[in-house]
Amino acid sequence: MNTPVPIAGESVERCDAARNRQRLLDAAALLVAERGPDAVTMDAVAARAGVGKGTVFRRFGSRAGLMAALLDHSESAFQYACMYGPPPLGPDAEPIARLIAFGRARIELVEVQGELLRAAESSVETRHGNAPRQVSLIHLEMLLRTIGMGARSRLLAHSLLAALDPGLILYQWHELGYSLKELADNWADLTHRVVTGDSLPSTEYST
Amino acid sequence: MNTPVPIAGESVERCDAARNRQRLLDAAALLVAERGPDAVTMDAVAARAGVGKGTVFRRFGSRAGLMAALLDHSESAFQYACMYGPPPLGPDAEPIARLIAFGRARIELVEVQGELLRAAESSVETRHGNAPRQVSLIHLEMLLRTIGMGARSRLLAHSLLAALDPGLILYQWHELGYSLKELADNWADLTHRVVTGDSLPSTEYST
After folding, report:
1. Which positions in chain B touch A104 (Cβ < 8 Å)?
2. Where along the sequence lies the DNA-binding region (chains A, B) (predicted)?
3. pLDDT the model gives residue A140
4. Fewest 10 Å CB contacts: which of A149, A193, B43, B90?
């Protein structure tokens, strides 16, 4: 999860800017992990990163801008891990192991930044069409196709991804008292059943 | 879907009130079906039911009250159909046929009242814990237990129900262009796979 997204072909100045940005995002991510998203104020991030508050404002414009950047950053790191990282998330594992690892990792992400994810998806309009969700969908579909789910892969990917909805995970965790381990095991069981189960002949139960 | 919820042991006066209420709800439901939820105004419902606007206000208080009653009414009818109605939704069908019919019927409900359902679930706080969802959850869990999913039934029910989220169905239908038939077939395929698939040994893929 901490794999940095590689940066190539930039000038020294742009590298410095990228490093500063990274440092501020790391500070903000630590604050979220330790004390929740409400603890992420421009002041707290500046103090944590050892810079002036003005630097944080110049870089991100506002707290909302910082929060959006934080989510983008962590989604990029997650995508990178899925595409190029070590197994079981990355390409050197079996597709079914990657599928299971994907959900486990999304559930772990909720632990650290669930409120951020939920806030990003709180609008009914953006909840299903937002960019990270699209990337997750394509990744799941690709894995399901590799496993042999054929033309049904895309809609199955939609249905499986719905089970990882950050709002649902938070509800199951905080309101119903399930542990994240139980939720991750349920994801593993669900996906294992789906990929080992029989596809439904299209004529059956079609009333 | 049109099975009326039975009313027992009431005086003639209460029966009249129930009939009037039913008539107003039927008028409102027809308006939703024909012209969408925005068409449901107190005026339009009164005109459609052939009563004065004051009657509609006396009965439901406000447009929001009317919309809530409309959703309650249709959820009650749906619950009644699941518990006592004819197969494949009701108890005289095999559990797997009932499971598949349940999802197909929820997807059909979205066609008629998707915007209502989505509006009812638009608050992040009430999206997962609202009463109709709880009832659906219990019904799905009961079917999964009967099929033999054991202790995993409750969390599997959560995951499957997420695939029927009205917002997701509306997004797939309106934004992505899937037909409701395709979405219902996906539900049938998903649930068939889940109940015929192998459960995951708890030690596997547990990293």
Report:
1. 207
2. 41-60
3. 97
4. B43
Which residues of chain B neighbour A88 with C-beta distances below 8 Å? 205, 207
Cβ atoms of residues A70 and A40 within 8 Å: yes
Domain check: are B119 and B145 in the same one?
yes
Nearest chain B residue to A89, by CA? B207
From the number of C-beta atoms within 10 Å of its C-beta (0-12, 13-18, 19+), residue A36 rates as middle
**Quick one: closest CA in B to A193, which residue?**
B197
User: How many contacts, defined by CB atoms under 8 Å, are there between A and B?
Assistant: 148
- At B102-114, the pLDDT tens digits run 999 999 988 777 7
User: What share of chain A has pLDDT > 70, as a percent?
Assistant: 86
**Chain segment A21-35, per-residue pLDDT in tens:** 889 999 998 888 788
SS3 A206: coil
Which residue has better confidence, A151 or B16?
A: A151
What number is the average pLDDT over the span A77-87? 92
CATH number at residue B45: 1.10.10.60
- Which among B160, B22, B46, B152 has a CA at the least distance from the CA of B98? B160
Which residues of chain B neighbour A95 with C-beta distances below 8 Å?
none
Q: Which of A38, A61, A84 is the last residue before a domain boundary? A: A61
Residue B169 lies in a domain: yes
**Residues A182-199 pLDDT 10s:** 999 999 999 999 999 988
- Tell me, what's the pLDDT at B1? 43
A80 shares a domain with A39: no
Is there a single domain that holds both residue A82 and residue A30? Answer: no
Please tell me whether residues A35 and A113 are part of one structural domain.
no
Cβ contact (<8 Å) for B100 and A189?
no
Domain with B32, as residue range(s), is: 7-61
